[in-house]
Amino acid sequence: MAEESFWVETLGCPKNQVDSDKLVGTLVADGLVPAAAADQADVVVVNTCAFIEAARQESIETVLALSDTRRPGARLVVTGCMAERYGQELADALPEADSVAGFGVPVSLSTKRAPTRDRAKLDLLNLPRPKASAPWAYVKVAEGCDRHCGFCAIPKFRGRQRSRSVESILAEVDALEATEIVLVAQDLASYGRDVGRAGAIVPLVQAVAERVARVRLLYLYPSELDDRLVDVICATGVPYFDLSLQHVAKRLLRGMRRWGDGDRFLRRIESIRGREPEAAFRSSFIVGYPGETEADHDLLLRFLEDAQLDWAGFFPFSREEGTYAAGLDGAVDDALVAERLLELSELQDRITASRRDALVGATVEALVDEPGVARSHREAPEIDGVINVPAEWATGSFVRATVTAAAGPDLEAA
């Protein structure tokens, strides 16, 4: 009898990719084998995203598309954020799915809604993963979030922050055998605070750096980026700072229930560049939050000009049920939001291109991810530009390359 095969389709952020890797490890341990394509699998798993409306719509469309193309007799399982957030409601709305299973519940093929089990044993954080298939891998150090940002529903379905033990994280790092480890969490810099170990991210980064050639951190809340953390990030040789800013207008940030303002952010960026001129910066911003004025938008435009971030993403505000922002007045017209998004994106594209152009002629140390594609410390996997290199350079190797040209976000090197 042939072995059953599976396919896992992942939507959303890198944290979801980690969850999918854990699911793959579980399925393999249960005796299933990976399929070559979704339409060849006996079990198709969709790991959904529920962060904003557009993500939920993409998740539903993906489920329906995979349902249409799965082979006869194949079973379809929906898991991830949408399954956890909407549960039975989602199961009722998706008769195409054979099972809807939230977090802490094993992928079940026998019921429409998987039964509740012992979450401590089934928590995805604690499940094993297969060895990394690329030279880099994400590692999730905590689940959930203790912040109460006005726009975000994640704490409502991911729960409060739960930091993993250092031992479990390092064991996973060792098992992955990756050259670059990308640490992720909803609130990465707060790692350990929920168990009375505020600041534990610093020794954790140091411990991971002793095991692998590169450590990268994603999603840093700006108020948590103290001098100790800046120093340890720079000491790893990957001075890459992914700052979760969301906006720069102080009044609007308070309406988001967040800390800071543009001047504070600029001073911190300038301070880091003073310590490490090669530091790279990424951030993301919400456009059209209730009450956002033209003056607020202009502040953000000026901030981008002054900050000269290497990378930035811009997202339209999504009114999420159960959040503080869902009840706020001052909605911004969709057409105006679209205009602002375009203006911000065009400006940042010019800034990014200019910063990439400035690297022509420089020598960079790059990790070859796959034939012809590499990254230096300035490029996070999957979200930033890449460096195109000679195809014969060995995957997984570090190379000293001279940048010969730039094309928008990407570089050419030899």
Q: Which structural traits does this protein have?
A:
414 residues, alpha/beta, five-stranded parallel beta sheet, five-stranded mixed barrel, 12 helices, 18 strands, 34% helix
Radius of gyration equals 22 Å
Class by helix and strand content?
A: alpha/beta
Uncertain segments: 105-122
Share of helical residues: 25-40%
Shape: globular
The ordered string of helix (H) and strand (E) elements is EHEEHEHEHEEHEHEHEHEHHEHEHEEEEE
Number of beta strands: 18
Helix count, DSSP H or I runs of 4 or more residues: 12
Q: Give the termini separation.
A: 50 Å
| Overall pLDDT metric | 90
State the strand order across the main sheet: 2-1-3-4-5
Give the biggest beta sheet.
Answer: 5 strands, parallel
Q: What percentage of amino acids are in beta strands?
A: 15-25%
What do these coordinates show?
The chain is α/β, with parallel strands linked by helices and 414 residues long. The chain contains twelve helices and 18 strands. A five-stranded parallel sheet has the order 2-1-3-4-5, with helices on both faces. It has a five-stranded mixed β-barrel with strand order 14-15-16-18-17. Helix 7 packs parallel to helix 8 and helix 10 packs parallel to helix 11. The longest helix has 24 residues. It is globular, with a radius of gyration of 22 Å.
